[in-house]
Amino acid sequence: MKELRFQYTERNERGEPSYSVWFLEENQESVLRIYLRKSEAEATNQPRHELFMELLETYGESLQLTS
Q: Which residues, 6+ apart, have CB-to-CB distance to 31 below 8 Å?
């Protein structure tokens, strides 16, 4: 894997925020995608949002991985 990409969409087709982390190969093909879903425990949603946004702020949308 050569790249880690953070995907954030403010509103998906259901009107909710969408978060995912993609692990990409050199040719930009995804090897693994992790999607974060809205929790039924409402109290956990805001901290998860804040963590994801902090990751985006710290690393940007894309992070190059070294071998």
A: 1, 23, 24, 25
